[in-house]
Amino acid sequence: MGQKFQYDESGGTFFYFLLSFLALILIPATFYYWPKKKKRDVEEDVKQCKCPGCISKKEHIKKLEPWKGTKNFLIKLIIIFGWVILFLLAYKVSQFDYEMSNFDPHEILGISLGASQSEIKKAYRKLSLILHPDKDTGNEKEFMKLTKAYQALTDEEARRNWEKYGNPDGPGAMSFGIALPSWIVEKENSVWVLGLYALVFMVAMPIVVGTWWYRSIKYTGDQVLLDTTHLYFHYFNKTPNAAIKRVIMILAASWEFDKKNNSEIVERQSDNEEVPHLIKKLPNLGEKNKERPLCYLYSIKARAIIHAHLSRIPLNPDTLEQDRRYIIGKCPFLVNEQVNAVNELIILAYSRRIPRLPPIETIENCMKLSPMIVQGLWEFKSPLLQLPYINDDNLKYFMSKKRQIKTLQQYAQLKVEERRNLLRNLSDDEYENVMRVLGKMPFIDFQIQVEVMDDDNPNEVTAGAIVTVTVVLIRKNMSTLFGDEQAKVSTEITENGTDEVKEIAGDTASENIVKRPAWLKQKKGGKKTKKSKPVNKQANSTSLKSKTEDSPKPVVAKKKDTLIRAKSKEKKEDEEDTDETDESDTENIEHHDKSSGDEDANKSNEDDDQEWEKFKKIHGREKSLEGRSKVSHSVHCPYYPYEKQEYWWTYICDRKSRTLLTAPYHITSLVDRETVHLKFTAPHWPGVYTFTVCLRSDSYLGFDQQKEIKLDVKEAPAEITEHPQWEFEDSEEEDPAETNDRESEYTTDEDVPID
After folding, report:
1. How far apart, in whole angstroms, are the C-alpha atoms of residue 253 and residue 234?
2. Fewest beta carbons less than 10 Å away: which of 59, 386, 546, 647?
């Protein structure tokens, strides 16, 4: 049987190819690119801030996309046109299938299956006079079908093949076709076909790949220039102890603000007059600094604009105000890159690759700069200025002799009459707007729990163990603090907005109840395999608490204990009356065995509870590794030119040695509740150490919290010298002096290392 390859002459299979290709593109394009109009929530519009700053900001955001309506219309038009083409191709293919599946020469000629040659010729002549194209009633398409049917039946062999195989050619050669029309390979069309191939594969594809490669080698994952990241590494390594103004100076030198590296930057002739005039209004700007590129004109201009933004100095709306919106809009992403850069330098300092270790104040100053940029305030200004309509003139009412209101939390806890009295110079509408904004601000319930999850005894910390600090953040609105006497707040807010911590929070009643799995069913009995060690309690420290102490005893176990005691008491009285000492002894032994069995069962149940708690925490750690969203709650920030979401940093540090213990974890999806696991290596010297767990906002001033944890580090067992997870093979041996220096970075409460 021969084989041959041929192109699609009729174009039927080519339509299949076009239909499949178009559907493959059109369906996902419709799902992702069809403009989705957000439903207008009337209640949400009422809750929005109506201050002049927010109204001006919304108008600016609308002006950023003047062609948004036209763009959405064109996208809809293209997608609808594609669906029209898809339906036409589907109709064409369906018609083609119908014609091919219904081709029957006997039916076309109107004769029976066993008709003779004369009957076939007679039927053909009769129908050809009607369907011939030269006739008035002619139909070229039907006449071609008629001719094909006549040819299939006039030849005897073709007729037998049709009757036997359903094909006039019989079981002939197998044919392989290419789903492309034949005009593609025709000579007169070769130039156009080659031109199309050259346009797609030699022009369009190299441009797309080159653009992607250029951006991938020029920008980081957060769309920050790699040259800017290298600049941060250089200057934070040069000046590891950087104050806020030094951090601003490094931020303003970012290459994103230079026109040579960013074509979106606008340079005007008026800058030569406006920028020097603005610099005169800003003290301590440091414009005479000779470091490059800190002394470049673009850097000085950006620095002056950032200082003017933090001082809330109005700028020319046609020139410098436009630059301010662009520069301030880029700053939160650049500040986050600064935090990452300082964190990398700290890691390099721990590994002895760089000589100087940046102190904890440097990375915290970078974090402080983010809410300053978002709110347009210096750190020494009152956090109350984040509310609408509040200015320096209003602050005098908050600092009276009777009451010193310094934080937003303190103001929210006042009674309704007192809050209104402090803002008596505002109208009712303005006051309602202030309370609306204050009520939507975050109030974070900051809980921590410390344990060694990979050891047999998670409540005892040994030297060199891996300590896991579970941070639980429960986000509520500030409206829960409003002067309602029935609402009780569990934490006491101090003047600086932090919580005074006296003990580590364990499992709370607000946690969701999780059903235990089938493999952790309670055992009815059994022998105790391992005896747990008692935990030493520290009266003056926040030592780790045993889970069995926090959890209440089962009610069933209590009832069994009372029944056993009552029965034993009754039997003792009976023994005294009857003087049957032997029988009483045997009964006491039996009851003692039963009680010991019940105790073993209770202890086995407690072991199961501990295993289940460990399983839940491991499952929580696996969930934390999943993809994170970047949508939480909108931030009230009229001085920031774009919409902003609430993000947070949490980390652990040692205040005494001014070192960072864990990398700052950036929380971007705190809607209601978030759980974060922070890990660090316990000190190698036994003793009592005090560390600090910090929570910082990147959007609001005065919302930072910190809690202290005290670790009573015990000496590691003799058989365990190093933690198995941290064994590395190095080609060179480490200097013992360097090891002692690294171990002595932590300091105990007595500031004296224990030998």
Report:
1. 12
2. 59
Q: Which residues of the chain have pLDDT under 70?
A: 1-13, 38-46, 96-103, 158-159, 161-163, 165-183, 185, 454-455, 483-628, 719-755
The length of the chain in residues reads: 755
Give the orientation angle of helix 244-252 with respect to helix 320-350, to 10 degrees: 110
Which residues make beta-bridge pairs with 442? 477
| 217-379: CATH, from 3.30.70.120, 1.10.10.10, 1.10.3380.10, 1.10.287.130 | 1.10.3380.10
CA distance linking residue 325 with residue 468, whole number of Å? 42
CA-based diameter of the chain, in Å? 133
Radius of gyration, alpha carbons of the chain: 40
- At 653 the pLDDT is 94
Confirm if 11 and 181 have CB atoms less than 8 A apart. yes
- Which pLDDT value is given to residue 103? 62
- Partnered with residue 126 across adjacent β-strands are none
Q: Which of 530, 336, 481, 465 is nearest to 725 (CA)?
A: 465
Please report the pLDDT score of residue 742 as a whole number: 44
Q: How many CA atoms lie within 13 A of 421 on its CB side?
A: 8
Token pair listed for 347 = 């890691």
Q: Which residues contact 750 (CB under 8 A, 6 or more apart)?
A: 687
At 489, which amino acid appears?
V
Per residue in 247-278, pLDDT (tens digit) is: 999 999 999 999 999 989 999 999 999 999 99
Per-domain boundaries in the chain:
3-101, 217-379, 518-624
